[in-house]
Amino acid sequence: MGTVLVVTSGKGGVGKTTSTAALGAALAKGGQKVALVDFDVGLRNLDLILGAERRVVFDFINVIQGQAQLTQALIRDKRLESLFLLPASQTRDKDALTEEGVAEVISNLREVFDWVICDSPAGIERGAMLAMRHADVAVVVTNPEVSSVRDSDRIIGMLDSKTTRAERGDPIKKHVLITRFDAARAARGEMLSIEDVLDILSLPLLGIVPESQSVLQASNVGSPITLSEPNSPPAMAYADAARRLKGEKVPMTIPTAKKGFLGGLFRRAA
Amino acid sequence: MIAVEGADQAWFDPALAPIARGKDSAKIIDFLETDPGKPDSADGVSPAATRLVDGPVRSGQSIFNANGDVTVIGSVASGAEVAAAGSIHIYGTLRGRAIAGAMGDSTARIFCSRFEAELISIDGCYQTAEQSPVDLIDKPVHIRLDGDTFEMNVSD
Known about the structure:
The complex is a heterodimer.
Chain A: E1 3-8, H1 16-29, E2 34-38, H2 46-49, H3 60-64, H4 70-73, E3 75-76, E4 83-86, H5 99-112, E5 115-119, H6 126-133, E6 137-142, H7 146-159, H8 164-168, E7 173-181, H9 183-187, H10 194-201, E8 205-210, H11 213-220, H12 225-228, H13 233-245, H14 261-265
Parallel strand pairs in A: 1-5, 1-6, 2-4, 2-5, 6-7, 7-8
Antiparallel strand pairs in A: 3-4
Chain B: E1 3-4, E2 28-29, E3 51-53, E4 62-65, E5 70-72, E6 81-84, E7 88-94, E8 97-100, E9 110-115, E10 119-122, E11 125-128, E12 141-146, E13 149-154
Parallel strand pairs in B: 3-5, 4-6, 5-7, 6-8, 7-9, 8-10
Antiparallel strand pairs in B: 1-2, 9-12, 10-11, 12-13
């Protein structure tokens, strides 16, 4: 039986989809069998971030409505053979996701995969509720700013009340993943510090992903950052976070770009 | 409904979806949620009318004409879907999905001024962007079905 993980945040644009792809790829790279499920029906993006948009035939809604088999809708990643995507439908809306349909798809995936990672849409509406509904573990993606932290707090409340585990009295495991962290701005007081965020949310920290151009570049070329630039600071942060999800003890660091010795020597080309 | 696969040929009925073919076509393909247009001519539209879309079809939109062709004066975005019982004509870039002959018509065709489609389908046969010939990308393309294969030509 695999673990169902929801990547959620409440607020939009904080990095849920990027984090889903990066964590999924990092876990798959470590030999785990991973299914990424896009719950953002009507505004799907995960296919683009994974570079699978040209291979979508069937989607989550087709499976729920019995028009396609789960195996037909799952798209295998071209780089990692244990990484799969179940894309969302772009032409439907979230009402097409039914409670029973989602339950069945998730339970089928859970039997085959080690990790089922649900990429939640922003907001606290139906799509977000269904994405977290069957989760065992939640990753709450937060930017170090007040609006994002407040929205995350709201989502954490829902994780503790609206999930099947919460209803069974067996609360889900929750982690905070801080993304787009800028150490220089935090030091100048222009961002909330890590301590402030953790103090407000009072959850264990899964990782700190620094703000970086390479995240943007990875999205644009359709590759999870953990695959396209595994040695970049954000990719290392995601790789560490993935190991922590597996239960490994990894010391918490804020990865930064290292200025190599040679970088200082060769500053100019002739 | 664009096609039914695995059914007995005897089941075939022009009123139903066509029998699907192709190496990886599904048992049942049923993408379309839109109700199949208005067959009546109450609003002055004849039953075999072309549905004209005078503008772009945006991501998430689904255009369906169960009675004839669809003509789009504009582009069809990635994540948008145009389906017709007959042929599809796009005077713009086709970046989304085009499903022609959706009610069963192997003579239906797809025309676009610029080809970048995510998926094309005629009479239940389909092909994703990945399977499409790269040399046709960004070109004006005319697509028809020849048995189980697509014949795709630059229409200059």
